Amino acid sequence: MTFIHFAIILPLIAAFLIAIIHKYVKGIHLGWFVLPIPFIIVSYLFTLIPTIRNGDTLLLNLNFMPRIGMNYDVYIDGLGLLFAILISGIGTLVVLYSIGYLSQKEKLLNFYIYLLLFMTAMLGVVLLDNVLMLYLFWELTSISSFLLIAFWTTKERSTYGAQKSMLITMFGGFMMLGGFLLLSNLTGTFSIREMISASDQVTGIGAGTLAVVLVLLGAFTKSAQFPFYVWLPDAMEAPTPVSAYLHSATMVKAGLYLVARFTPVFMLSTTWVWTILIVGLITLCWASFNAFIKDDLKAVLAFSTVSQLGLIMSLLGISGLAVVRGANEQIFTVAVVAAVFHIINHATFKGALFMVTGIIDHQTGTRSIKKLGGLMTIMPITFTMALVTSLSMAGIPPFNGFLSKEMFLEAMFEISNANFSALASVGFLFPLLAIVGSIFTFLYSAKIVMQIFLGEETKETPKEPKEASALLLISPAILSLLVVVFGLFPNLLTKSIIDPAAMSIINAVEPLNTKISHWHGFNSPALWATIVIIVVGAALYYFRDTWIFIYKYIKDKFTINYLYDQGLHYITIYSNRFTRMLMTGFLRTYMVYIFGFLVILGFVTMLRTGLNLDFSNLAPIGIQDMILVGVILIALGIIMITKSRMVSIIMLGAVGFSMALFFVFFRAPDLALTQLAIETVTTTLFLVCFYHLPKQSKLPEKRKFKLTNFIVAVGVGAVSILIGLSAFSNRLFESISQYHIDHVYDLAAGKNMVNVILVDFRGYDTVFETLVFGIAGIGIYVLMRLTINNRKDDKNEERAEESRL
Amino acid sequence: MNLFLNIVFIIAIVGMAIAMGIASYRIIRGPTLHDKIVALDAFGVMLMATIGIFSVLLDTSYLIVVIMLIGMLGAVGTIAMAKFLEKGWVIDIDRDSDE
């Protein structure tokens, strides 16, 4: 148990301590006590950078459930460390921000416990090497996210959003578990590193492709890729620190982490790379297209997050594609580095943007773009941060978004030139989609800056706007500063973080020595693409009134949200209907189900295994047996066709007594005795019931003849007969009764073998059968007494009422 | 057991069977309930006789208990049904009860 093992569960332990602190310390904002925890973790993680930088990795084993291979093995390489630093670093800033954002009146204890739970879960997802543990923490992120989205439980939209995100991410999580189990079946291990070394066993077979699809479902639902992005805009009902932390910087990147982590495992599978690349690009375009029209600032940012995640996803797809198709190493490296770099950049500028949104919401009381305007002079610091981060998001130099966007476009152009046989004719689509997506990114980034901070001042805001307190401003300020620093000096990051992370994604051994430069020369198509994006974007923004009408053609009915809502609605309706159709409430229907299934099962089994009937062992049949069988058959026939209940009862008695006679003929005197006595009692009881039946149903009722019942009854009879015959024909072993015959006297001192078996050889059965009788007797007594007592109570009540009157 | 006895027993069983058949006819067809009860009682007695003959044929003495049980059940059953016809119930309910 090293500190890093401890660090993962440190937030969880802190969650317990926080509850105690909350009980005894009032007056101080609870967030101050939470703040040191992510700070300790991030400080510790920074000390690991030199190790990782040298190309080393850390593997720290700790057995948790070794029998099933579920171990708490921490594996730290560039990728894991990058994500862990993002999680704990932004976590620190978000906690700091939430101190200013949430007032003491909120349920702070709940908030911080959920947040710490989430932090543990996220650290576990990115740092653990075992897929089962990864899944465990993965689900923990879903659960804590669910709790955080529904933080204001009284709001209907919150619970709706929480339910939606829960359903979608849980669905993906289960699929992912299936993929992991398939993978571990194929490779024989639960450890991701060992899966990577056994990756040649995964590709090229059907189960491997299925595993690809299942793992990708997990990643796509979590990372809000098309068409599973629908939960993310609805998750914006969460408090803004939560949106900033979970739904922009960390949790939605868990899917990206998963894809990056499993790229070496699946790299040789074409399904994997094409799915990622295409889904990523579609997500990028569709979400950025939708983001422009939204009025709610957080909705814009949510769609923006979705589109940026699509961008990173498509870059990860190219990383794999290069290996599959054997393209040159250069694209490969560029795409991986771009993906890693954009993960960092997106976390910084999107986190800051969400916090800025929160500040605007906090200071003006609204997030609606239509109500806001002209905040530049009122909130200059917020404006500066929003400007820097929006420009970075749009991909304008000199901020960090420009650099990664540039690399993204470069990779897309390379892919279109690479001339793969399958996509020689459609290769131009990739850069085209990328450019279209980037134009819309530019558009909504411009919209955020222009329509909120510029233009004329609005007086409609619920609160009088003024600049926020330092506590709120400090976290987005740090992030904005990082945006600028990473933009101006990108090579600060390359050696320490980006290269190790990129190396672990592509499983490379040699150092990459990446150099990120601002200037690629005039030959670079990415430069011209950027110029096109800016010019076209600016023109489109300026003339937006002329083309905005195209959004009207997207009716609500064509959105995936509509599909989701209708799906949920109809699933409820049809499952209700199905249940009502099956569960009629009539016992006879259920009997038909049970016996019908028995008949089908019996016949299917017989058809599959074949019947083996053997009549060589039969005893001779005497005249008396035939007569008795005749009597029983006649009695049964009368029971079935008679219209009188009395006749049925008598005939049932006749069957019972005939059985007793059978026992006589087959030399079973004990059975005959018991059968006679029991049959008499049973018939009497039937007559008692008959006597007490209400008058109206005494009338002889014509039985409804039902063909189904008849068929099922005949089927059950046939199955029982056939099973009996085949069981008789296939005796595998000698009966053990010879032992009883031999030892009934010398072991048990009795001559009546039946009785000796009942009370001596197998006395336990007798004990519990006696118990059954006792319970039945007590049950009957209780039933009758309870009825009587109730009647008395009723009478007492009636009397009491009468006396009151 | 010699052939003669065997034939006698078989004739006896056949005779019993015929008698039981006739009694069954009365049980099913008896014009009144009283006829049916008397026929049932006779049927029980004949059943005892049949089992007796069978126990000789099967060469066993264990079935005597069965014969006695049928005798008892037949007697109790006939009395119970007679009481039912007479009073309308079989077991007397507590006399203090007002029901």
TrEMBL record, chain A:
One Pfam family hit: MbhE
Keywords for the protein's UniProt record, in alphabetical order: Antiport, Cell membrane, Hydrogen ion transport, Ion transport, Membrane, Sodium, Sodium transport, Transmembrane, Transmembrane helix, Transport
Annotated localization: Cell membrane; Membrane
Listed GO CC annotations: plasma membrane
GO molecular function: antiporter activity
UniProt domain MrpA C-terminal/MbhD: residue ranges: 631-695
Entry keyword annotation includes Protein transport: no
Membrane topology: Multi-pass membrane protein
Membrane-spanning ranges: 6-25, 32-52, 72-97, 109-128, 134-153, 165-183, 203-221, 242-260, 272-293, 300-324, 330-360, 372-400, 420-444, 468-489, 526-543, 590-609, 621-639, 646-666, 672-693, 705-728, 770-788
Sequence ranges assigned to domain MrpA C-terminal/MbhE in this UniProt record: 707-785
GO biological process: proton transmembrane transport; sodium ion transport
InterPro entries (alphabetical): CPA3_Na-H_Antiporter_A, MrpA/MnhA1/PhaAB, MrpA_C/MbhD, MrpA_C/MbhE, ND/Mrp_TM, Proton_antipo_N
Domain named NADH-Ubiquinone oxidoreductase (complex I) chain 5 N-terminal: residues: 70-112
Top-rank taxon: Bacteria
Record domain NADH:quinone oxidoreductase/Mrp antiporter transmembrane: where: 130-427
Location, primary (coarse class): membrane
Family of this protein: Belongs to the CPA3 antiporters (TC 2.A.63) subunit A family.
Name this polypeptide is given: Na(+)/H(+) antiporter subunit A
Organism in which the protein naturally occurs: Phocicoccus schoeneichii
Taxonomic placement: Bacteria, Bacillati, Bacillota, Bacilli, Bacillales
TrEMBL record, chain B:
GO CC annotation: plasma membrane
Record-given protein name: Na(+)/H(+) antiporter subunit F1
One Gene Ontology term of the molecular function aspect: sodium:proton antiporter activity
TM ranges: 6-25, 37-57, 63-85
Compartment(s) of residence: Cell membrane
Topology with respect to the bilayer: Multi-pass membrane protein
UniProt record similarity statement: Belongs to the CPA3 antiporters (TC 2.A.63) subunit F family.
Highest taxon of source: Bacteria
Primary localization: membrane
Keyword vocabulary terms for this entry: Antiport, Cell membrane, Ion transport, Membrane, Transmembrane, Transmembrane helix, Transport
Listed Pfam families: MrpF_PhaF
